[in-house]
């Protein structure tokens, strides 16, 4: 389905109306983003006087960002720790697991595979209630560990599922050559599998990262101390303020998006690819 | 396929089991255990702590008579139907992008479609909540600006909506029972789903050139082209998205929780089954009952997933 | 795809990854530093945490000031506050209590049941009869702790569990806020209305002024949060006599649960009905004043109504003392604050009035309770007493501009008007007195009373069919709760009875035994009333 295979000139009709229609939808879609940016540089009275248009650069209230930064950056830091550790841990373990399933058909591996596949079917909707009780008995409430472990375990099934198919398609000679050199399985994973599956790992990483970054229900019931809050809880608390300085709030919203913006800028392709395959997850 | 191994080889490679043990442990503890525990605890009056009291099927019979719970399914049904229509922009977008001649533009539009994903979903949600704000919200000021408000007021009078829209009064989108579901539907306008667009595009890519050429010769209009060429070819993707959407809608309650609060907003109009489960557990402390509610949902979603696997993914 | 080549993509991905790693290391370093740095300073710090939902302007600063003072005097103790938004507070409370992660002190009230109180909170009854050590050197040095609060610690007392569960830090009251600039513009003077008659006259004058000048000014800005409170107060001014006829000590104790049970029973028994002239008069008052609020105010949230007022669209707004700081900082005009009057006795506008209604019941507020999960209960209790001492309550009140809860604290000039007014009547029964179900039935019908086409008969017609069922349902629930409470006290009762037998002279044992026995009797009485009422309703419904 790569673009090169499409022949040129297969489509007809004038291009301009299509572009116009696309931009119209995109414009509406990006409206919240635009509002966030332009309000983040206003104070309340300016905003009431002028809702839609950005204010002049000389009137920009940079103080909003200063204030919002103080408020939200600690949450961003916690979120980065949770999401990065969760993603790395998840992919590392999933690679090991997928390697196990893909390399040999070991005794019991069919049964174990069945156990994993079954979880693709079972919805986790009721789990939030009992997970809470479980974390309580494990003494993990009000820790970032709980969130990291949940991120790692939550991604296992899907990642192993995708990675297994991928590893199975790596030519067998590569493994055999490595084995001849006396490489252990772990060394094979490191030297054969990982270099060969860079893009799919990147894709999965982005999906896991997004999932963990956007989560707020688990953090909301797990975390108690404000110094542990991740972005999700932090924003909910921010929304609960009575006196709302919208400029500051929007600035905080923007700062909460910055890490994702950076990742997006540098890994645009993986992002696009990752989301296309995201639907397999179900 | 993975290589079958002999017994000796397997014994020799026993260390390989260490590769699967961590994942297996995690999945057992954090996926299987909670599910089994939920089934077990649904037979108890349980406050989440160590004390519990076996009450047989009482939680289930209570759930069957729970008006809020089944009312919430009605709300979900409305939202599912609305979400069906909300897929139209994604399909339209995919078709528009696909019909472009320039591959460069195709690529960049794809990027732009994905762009909103970099805003955390919570932020998008709160910005929309702010749009709904009666005094400062963009929605009211847009309606005033374009004069649509007076249209709504006239409609209110004509159809007897009971004073939902009043002249000079800011409309409380999330504060008026009759407007809760409309607000939940308007939310996210123009309802472009990045994942949806990309999946539909993938489906469209399979259309051969000759089909278009033949269509051009027959002089069909763009809309007919969509109806007779493009839409039938992405039916698989559409069905997939419909099932995914239904599962997602049935499972989701974060949106309702954050926009409307744990009671589903004024008059409880925005209450959905998942939120009621969450409410019972973490607001009322009725963990056992919440487990029973969760199992009902579990059953519903399981059926949907099976339908999905049986009829829709076959072609993959 | 068209943009870029693989090498460029790799480099870009690499840079992105690098940036992420840098951020990660920085963030991780920050967390680790926060966790381990303080412990290097010497012995491990003891941390006391307290949680509340008062996110209004000034309160957090007030608490911080007191906490800083406590830490200054107690090196090795760290006091941290956890402000939780009102909207998530109940969820937060349940998760923390059930999860065993509750902080040492929690503000009592919102979403808290007797069950929570009994299971998760430590009563402070033991300390309320001795002086507060932190009041040493003040006028309250020898006063028992209970007497140092303006309400005699009624706010910390649970009438169902018969224990004190916390100490109040502030005082709450509802007041009318005026836009003084606008008042001057309309009336030519700045005199705030003192009687209900003057209030209504001012509202009418404002309406006329608005119509004459074409300016968009509403007399009173209402919200679905506060307007019903004010209006119910007016209603209560008419039903005091009725209430005391049905529940004989209503005027002394107010609508506590035994009285509520008596009133429900009385209604189901036909001793009073929705057609009673007192009820109708009360509803008429509610409707009259509501007509001076902006149409559709029942849709507006608390923030929205405040915003409306602050923008200068309304002359008055009724709200709580807790909003004062936020409002004065946001308003671009001068603010006047006064009590909310009810009709004077003999005023034909409200023929059943006995006199002004006091702020009692909720006079002192922001009650902080001690949880059983506290790791350092002695320190937490000590901090609680510190917080409720005269000097610290003074500091809290000075910083937050909130009214104090402790006797002898001088409120700031702004807070003075918020000092609870205690020299009045309790207010009679409201239609939603019995609990969640009557509240639901009544509040969903409010627009039938206050809407543009509403009226008292329309409202009564709307609630009448469901009203007795709602009362009965609430009565049932109340009985169930008190039964559970009684079961919980049974063991204690047994133990006390045994102790009393061992040492009949111990007055504290016999006093407690008496209290508990009385509570048990109350419970039995309520249960009996419910059973009776239910039997009667069923008999009436079953076909002959």
**Largest interface: pair, residues per side:** A-B, 101 and 111 residues
* Total domain count of chain C: 2
CATH class of the domain at 67-134 and 172-315 in chain B: Mainly Alpha
Beta-strand residue fraction of chain C: 5-15%
Q: Would you tell me the structural class of the helices and strands of chain C?
A: alpha+beta
CATH fold title of the domain at 67-134 and 172-315 in chain B = MetI-like fold
Poorly predicted ranges of chain C? none
What Rg of chain C, in angstroms, do the CA atoms define?
27 Å
Main sheet strand line-up of chain B: 2-3
| Main sheet overview of chain C | 7 strands, mixed
Q: Estimate what percentage of residues of chain B fall within beta strands.
A: under 5%
Cα end-to-end separation of chain C: 83 Å
Under CATH at level 1, the class of the largest domain in chain C stands as Alpha Beta
CATH superfamily of the domain at 67-134 and 172-315 in chain B: MetI-like
Would you kindly provide a written description of the structure presented here, covering whatever features stand out?
The complex is a heterotrimer of chains A (282), B (316) and C (544). The longest helix of chain A has 41 residues, at 63-103. Chain A has one domain: Orthogonal Bundle (MetI-like fold). Chain A contains 14 helices and one strand, in the order ααααβαααααααααα. By secondary structure, chain A is an all-alpha fold. Chain B is built from 17 helices and three strands. The two termini of chain B are 18 Å apart. By secondary structure, chain B is mostly helical. A two-stranded antiparallel ribbon of chain B has the order 2-3. Chain B has helices at 7-12, 17-41, 58-64, 67-85, 88-99, 103-114, 121-132, 138-146, 148-159, 177-186, 194-204, 209-218, 222-233, 235-251, 254-260, 273-282, 287-312, and strands at residues 3-4, 44-46, 52-54. Chain C has 544 residues and is an alpha+beta fold. Chain C folds into two domains: 46-171 and 362-418, D-Maltodextrin-Binding Protein, domain 2; 174-358 and 431-469, D-Maltodextrin-Binding Protein, domain 2. In chain C, strands 1, 2, 3, 4, 7, 12 and 13 form a seven-stranded mixed beta sheet that branches. In chain C, helix 2 (59-73) packs antiparallel against helix 15 and helix 18 (456-502) runs antiparallel to helix 19. The N and C termini of chain C lie far apart (83 Å). The chains are: A mainly alpha (282), B mainly alpha (316), C alpha+beta (544). Chains in contact: A-B, A-C, B-C.
């Amino acid at each position: 389905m790569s673009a090169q295979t499409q022949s040129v000139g297969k489509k007809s009709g004038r291009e301009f109306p299509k572009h116009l229609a696309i931009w119209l939808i995109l414009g509406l879609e990006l409206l919240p983003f635009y509002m966030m940016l332009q309000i983040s540089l206003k104070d309340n009275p300016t905003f009431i006087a002028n809702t839609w248009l950005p204010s002049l650069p000389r009137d920009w209230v940079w103080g909003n960002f200063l204030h919002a930064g103080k408020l939200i950056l600690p949450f961003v830091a916690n979120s980065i720790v949770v999401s990065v550790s969760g993603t790395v841990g998840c992919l590392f373990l999933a690679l090991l697991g997928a390697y196990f399933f893909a390399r040999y058909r070991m005794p019991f591996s069919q049964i174990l595979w069945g156990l994993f596949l079954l979880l693709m079917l079972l919805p986790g909707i009721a789990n939030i209630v009992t997970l809470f009780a479980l974390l309580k008995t494990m003494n993990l409430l009000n820790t970032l560990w709980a969130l990291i472990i949940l991120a790692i375990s939550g991604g296992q099934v899907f990642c192993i599922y995708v990675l297994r198919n991928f590893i199975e398609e790596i030519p067998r000679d590569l493994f055999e050559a490595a084995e001849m050199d006396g490489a252990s399985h772990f060394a094979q994973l490191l030297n054969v599998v990982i270099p060969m599956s860079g893009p799919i790992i990147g894709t999965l990483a982005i999906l896991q990262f997004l999932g963990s970054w956007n989560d707020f229900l688990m953090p909301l019931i797990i975390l108690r101390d404000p110094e542990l809050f991740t972005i999700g809880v932090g924003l909910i608390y921010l929304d609960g303020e009575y006196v709302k300085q919208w400029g500051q709030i929007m600035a905080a919203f923007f700062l909460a998006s910055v890490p994702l913006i950076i990742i997006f800028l540098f890994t645009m392709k993986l992002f696009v690819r990752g989301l296309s395959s995201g639907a397999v997850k179900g | 396929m993975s290589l079958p191994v002999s017994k000796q080889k397997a014994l020799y490679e026993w260390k390989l089991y260490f590769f699967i043990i961590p994942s297996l442990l995690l999945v057992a503890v954090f996926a299987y255990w909670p599910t089994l525990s939920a089934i077990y605890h649904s037979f108890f009056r349980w406050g989440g702590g160590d004390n519990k009291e076996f009450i047989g099927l009482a939680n289930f019979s209570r759930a069957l008579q729970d008006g809020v719970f089944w009312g919430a399914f009605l709300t979900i049904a409305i939202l599912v139907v609305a979400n069906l229509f909300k897929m139209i922009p994604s399909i339209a977008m995919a078709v528009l992008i696909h019909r472009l001649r320039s591959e460069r533009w195709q690529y960049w539009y794809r990027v732009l479609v994905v762009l909103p994903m970099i805003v955390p979903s919570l932020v998008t949600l709160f910005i929309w909540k702010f749009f709904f704000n009666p005094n400062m919200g963009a929605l009211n000021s847009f309606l005033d600006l374009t004069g649509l408000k007076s249209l709504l007021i006239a409609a209110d009078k004509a159809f007897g909506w009971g004073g939902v829209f009043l002249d000079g009064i800011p409309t409380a989108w999330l504060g008026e029972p009759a407007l809760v579901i409309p607000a939940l539907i308007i939310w996210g306008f123009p309802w472009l789903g990045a994942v949806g667009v990309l999946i539909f595009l993938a489906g469209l890519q399979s259309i051969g050139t000759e089909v278009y050429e033949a269509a051009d010769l027959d002089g069909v209009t763009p809309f007919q082209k969509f109806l007779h060429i493009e839409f039938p070819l992405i039916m698989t993707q559409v069905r997939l998205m419909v099932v995914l959407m239904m599962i997602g809608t049935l499972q989701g309650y974060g949106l309702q929780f954050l926009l409307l609060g744990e009671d589903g907003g004024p008059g409880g109009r925005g209450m959905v089954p998942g939120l009621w489960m969450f409410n019972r557990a973490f607001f009322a402390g009725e963990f056992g009952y919440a487990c029973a509610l969760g199992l009902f949902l579990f059953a519903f979603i399981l059926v949907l997933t099976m339908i999905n696997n049986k009829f829709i993914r076959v072609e993959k | 795809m068209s943009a870029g080549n693989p090498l460029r993509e790799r480099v870009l991905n690499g840079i992105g990854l690098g940036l992420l790693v840098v951020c990660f290391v920085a963030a991780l370093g920050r967390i680790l530093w926060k966790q381990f740095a303080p412990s290097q300073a010497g012995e491990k710090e003891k941390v006391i945490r307290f949680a509340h939902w008062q996110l209004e302007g000034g309160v957090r600063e007030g608490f911080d000031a007191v906490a800083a003072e406590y830490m200054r005097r107690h090196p090795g103790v760290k006091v941290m506050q956890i402000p939780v938004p009102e909207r998530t507070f109940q969820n937060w409370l349940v998760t923390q209590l059930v999860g065993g992660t509750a902080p040492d002190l929690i503000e009592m009230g919102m979403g808290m049941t007797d069950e929570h109180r009994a299971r998760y909170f430590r009563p402070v009854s033991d300390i309320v009869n001795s002086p507060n050590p932190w009041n040493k050197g003040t006028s309250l040095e020898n006063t028992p702790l209970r007497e140092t609060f303006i309400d005699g610690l009624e706010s910390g007392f649970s009438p169902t569990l018969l224990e004190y569960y916390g100490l109040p830090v502030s005082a709450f009251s509802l007041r009318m806020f005026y836009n003084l600039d606008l008042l001057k513009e309309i009336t030519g003077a700045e005199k705030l209305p003192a009687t209900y008659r003057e209030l209504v006259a001012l509202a009418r004058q404002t309406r006329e002024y608005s119509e004459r000048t074409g300016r968009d000014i509403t007399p009173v800005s209402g919200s679905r949060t506060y307007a019903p409170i004010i209006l119910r107060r007016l209603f209560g001014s008419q039903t005091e006599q009725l209430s005391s006829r049905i529940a004989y000590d209503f005027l002394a104790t107010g609508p506590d649960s035994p009285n509520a049970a008596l009133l429900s029973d009385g209604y189901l028994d036909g001793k009073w009905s929705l057609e009673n002239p007192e009820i109708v008069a009360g509803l008429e008052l509610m409707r009259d004043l509501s007509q001076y609020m902006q149409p559709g105010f029942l849709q507006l949230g608390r923030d929205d109504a405040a915003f409306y007022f602050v923008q200068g669209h309304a002359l008055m707004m009724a709200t709580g003392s807790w909003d004062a700081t936020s409002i004065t900082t946001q308003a671009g005009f001068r603010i006047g604050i006064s009590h909310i009057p009810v009709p004077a006795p003999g005023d034909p506008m409200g023929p059943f009035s006995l006199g002004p209604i006091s702020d009692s019941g909720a006079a002192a507020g922001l009650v902080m309770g001690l949880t059983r999960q506290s790791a350092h209960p002695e320190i937490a209790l000590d901090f609680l007493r510190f917080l409720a001492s005269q000097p610290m309550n003074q500091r809290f009140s000075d910083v937050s501009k909130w009214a104090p809860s402790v006797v002898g604290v001088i409120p700031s000039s702004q807070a003075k008007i918020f000092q609870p007014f205690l020299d009045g009547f309790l207010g009679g029964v409201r239609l939603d007195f019995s609990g969640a179900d009557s509240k639901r039935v009544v509040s969903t019908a409010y627009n039938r009373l206050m809407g543009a086409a509403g009226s008292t008969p329309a409202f009564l017609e709307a609630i009448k069919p469901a009203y007795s069922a709602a009362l009965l349902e609430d009565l049932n629930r109340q009985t169930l709760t008190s039964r559970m409470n009684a079961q919980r006290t049974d063991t204690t009762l047994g133990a006390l009875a045994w102790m009393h037998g061992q040492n009949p002279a111990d007055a504290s044992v016999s006093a407690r035994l008496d209290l508990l026995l009385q509570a048990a009797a109350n419970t039995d009485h309520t249960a009996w009333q419910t059973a009776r009422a239910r039997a009667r309703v069923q008999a009436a419904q079953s076909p002959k």
